[in-house]
Design a protein that fits this description.
heterodimer; A: about 350 residues; alpha+beta; Rossmann fold; OB fold (Dihydrolipoamide Acetyltransferase, E2P); 6-stranded mixed sheet; 5-stranded antiparallel sheet; about 35% strand; elongated; B: about 280 residues; mainly alpha; MetI-like fold; two-stranded antiparallel ribbon; 13 helices; about 0% strand; membrane (chain B)
Chain lengths: ~350, ~280
């Protein structure tokens, strides 16, 4: 069992608290992304797990064994770096073999493992070349193969795709998913790219200012963000937040009455995904003033305001809305997230 | 721009080429001619005179011995210094600044500093005397104590010349992204393996530059030796100096100069060959 338990990890750099008591459990074979903007502490957390950085306090256990005091090599993990860190003075073969050589594996095992990893990552044709002759994508494959060749219990990946161009990133993302699914390695993946995290992960831990704001399945995080930050960070366009008046425990949206959680004041924040709406005639729908309409081909993106607050919504490409129009929108009540205006935290979903 | 006027690059480098040709190539040709001619005709008489001189063999042996001892020690110390300072966060600049102080001291001044320490009435003897190790002044720099003299000169040279090696090596180490070492660490390489298998190969270009520079300079060693040992420890450049000034024989001095140049060129070629830097294998 190679489950990972991150137990109240703290890290301070002088007076600055990079990580404020992070706790997180990752199950055996699970793919978990640490997602957040730069400076949120995700890379620091990964480096603490790797043993490249020391934590101020807290514990990390892999398979019930505390690893916090161990040297990186004794932790049973492998890592893929953002800039690949493929050794330029060694051939691709020697790079992939590096971890096994360090473990003093015999030549037959080295050969077998290198060939297996090279096969998975499709780098057999380059085994006797030097990394400088390879493209960024090929170097990244070498880095992944080097990590998989040692059959690690845990694989750590630090923004492994961010140095690739957009097209290659998409291709590598799909391929990584295939490779890692078949390898079944417990993986922690650090990224600031929400589409990467959404596409690859079993679960996502969204981090912000040294705190895990929410852990959950990608769809759950997308539909029901725990905080305003999560809703705003995940999704493109980000979630809309509209402050609306509450009367008698209800919010009026056009002709509809929306029930809100009980213990709220006279205002609440309505969290609305841009695509959780459909066009409805006024006054049945809630009124939106469209400032800009952008036909994107696959959909129609509208930027404007509801209750004088900025919103972005998405309609099917077939709708004909023009810049300057005033339209009515029917909200999908199952996909509404209610948030506290004071704390920015969301209320548990209300049954409609 | 330059495609229309292809002569512009040549025009721009002309002054430096002319300057070097005038003040380097011309004297070089003159020196070689001076060395290999006698009364206006080509001759090996000067070379013969150099080789048969009583100090020739000693000066060759001393120069090589000094180089073989001093250069590896300097490289090793500089690598250690560079690796240590890489671990330092605050105060790194100050440490580097202090370490490079010897760079600003002329070699003759450095020789005199060590002379004031090691001469009969120097600080070293005072220290030994006050500790009761010696009863009266001991002599370290005379022809009767060749080993002590050699060690003194080597130490002074190491003290004086390591800074430049360290500067080059620190620059080389700075070029190596820390992820290489981290990756090696994660995949199981201990500190020594990381140093030998990752760091050293990656700073090969810097190592090559440092070795060439230091070796060439080591073959040209003179002022420190002259200050500490005088003629008790003949070296090649010292002999050239003696033939030129004491013996007023410019031709034999010229043969020495040519010999030193040949040795330096050979050493450089050997380093370039032995430490071949393949641009394909660099970060």
């Amino acid at each position: 069992m190679a489950n990972i338990v991150i137990d109240r990890i703290r890290k301070s750099f002088g007076a600055f608290q990079a990580l404020k008591e992070i706790s997180l459990t990752i199950n055996d074979g699970e793919f978990v992304s640490l997602l957040g903007p730069s400076g949120c502490g995700k890379t620091t957390l990964l480096r603490i797990i790797a043993g490249l950085e020391t934590s101020t306090s807290g514990d990390v256990r892999i398979g019930d064994r505390s690893i916090i005091g161990l040297a990186p090599k004794d932790r049973g993990l492998a890592m893929v770096f953002q800039n690949y860190a493929v050794f330029p003075h060694m051939t691709v073969y020697e790079n992939v073999a590096f971890g096994l050589r360090m473990q003093k594996a015999d030549d037959a095992r080295v050969k077998a493992q290198v060939e297996k990893a090279a096969g998975l990552l499709h780098i057999e044709p380059y085994l006797d070349r030097y990394p400088n002759k390879l493209s960024g994508g090929q170097r990244q494959r070498v880095a992944v193969a080097r990590a998989l060749a040692v059959e690690p219990k845990v694989l750590l990946m630090d923004e492994p795709l961010s140095n690739l161009d957009a097209l290659l990133r998409l291709e590598m993302r799909t391929e990584l998913k295939t490779v890692l699914q078949s390898a079944g390695t417990t993986t922690i993946y650090v990224t600031h790219d929400q589409t990467e995290a959404m596409g690859l992960s079993d679960r996502i831990a969204v981090m912000h200012n040294g705190v895990v704001e929410q852990v959950g399945h990608p769809v759950e995080i997308y539909n029901h963000p725990a905080t305003r930050f999560v809703g705003g960070f995940i999704g493109n366009p980000p979630m809309n937040f509209i402050k609306v008046p509450v009367s008698n425990g209800q919010v009026v949206a056009g002709a509809e009455q929306l029930a809100v959680p009980e213990d709220v004041g006279n205002e609440i924040v309505l969290g609305l995904r841009g695509e959780a709406v459909e066009l409805a005639p006024l006054p049945q729908g809630i009124e939106m003033k469209v400032r800009v309409a952008e036909p994107m081909g696959s959909h129609l993106l509208l930027t404007g305001s509801i209750h004088d607050q900025p919103v972005r919504v998405i309609l099917p490409a077939s709708e004909t809305v023009k810049s300057g129009d005033t339209i009515g929108l029917k909200l999908d009540r199952k996909r509404i997230t209610w948030l506290s205006p004071e704390s920015g935290k969301s209320f548990p979903a209300v049954s409609a | 721009m330059t495609q229309n006027r292809p002569w512009i690059p040549y025009l721009l480098i002309l002054p430096s080429v002319a300057f070097l040709a005038l003040l380097f190539v011309v004297p070089l040709v003159q020196t070689i001619w001076l060395a290999l001619s006698d009364n206006g005709a080509p001759s090996l008489a000067n070379a013969e005179r150099m080789v048969t001189d009583i100090n020739f063999t000693r000066s060759v042996r001393n120069t090589f011995l000094l180089t073989i001892v001093v250069v590896p020690v300097q490289i090793a110390i500089a690598l250690a210094m560079g690796t240590m300072v890489a671990k330092v966060g605050r105060g790194r600049e100050t440490i580097l600044w202090i370490w490079t102080i010897p760079l600003g001291i002329s070699d003759l001044a450095a020789g005199l500093v060590w002379l004031s320490i090691l001469q009969n009435t120097g600080y070293f003897n005072s220290l030994l005397f006050s500790l009761g190790v010696i009863g009266r002044q001991a002599s370290w720099l005379s022809y009767q104590t060749p080993v002590a003299l050699f060690i003194a000169i080597a130490v002074a040279e190491i003290w004086r010349g390591t800074a430049i090696v360290m500067v080059i090596i620190v620059a080389g180490l700075n070029q190596v992204p820390k992820e290489f070492k981290e990756a090696a660490e994660i995949f199981g390489a201990g500190p020594w393996t990381r140093f030998w298998r990752i760091t050293l190969p990656l700073i090969r270009p810097a190592l090559q530059s440092a070795l060439i520079l230091r070796t060439v300079l080591a073959f040209e060693v003179f002022a420190v030796v002259y200050a500490l040992g005088g003629r008790n420890f003949p070296v090649l450049v010292g002999e050239a100096y003696n033939w030129q000034n004491q013996n007023q024989n410019y031709s034999v001095a010229a043969v020495y100069a040519v010999l030193i140049m040949i040795i330096s060129l050979a050493a450089t070629l050997i380093y370039l060959k032995a430490l071949k830097v393949d641009p394909e294998r660099l970060p």
